[in-house]
Prior knowledge:
This protein is mainly α.
Amino acid sequence: MNEIPEVIRTIPLNLYLYFSTALFIIGVIGVLTRRNAIIIFMCVELMLNSVNLLLTAFSAYRSDPNGQIFVFFIMAVAAAEVAVGLAIIVMIYRNLRTTDINFLNKLKW
């Protein structure tokens, strides 16, 4: 059990920070520039996973399991989000035959 934090500590913490920041920025750019609802949904999940990576790295460096427990709850909420989000996207596709978010402006009154 004590071997896992030692393996994580072989990589400097700032590299985890850079990698997580890069993943988060890629997700933000995807959300802001893409028009397909499924791609936007995947970019939001990428942002959540980048935060999970950073929480796990900080938790391992501090030898404190609280961050990893928090990651578990984030993953549970993300799984529920995926189930609800994909159901909404499927229903929109069934009704409108597209997943383009610009086409969804017709839903406004």
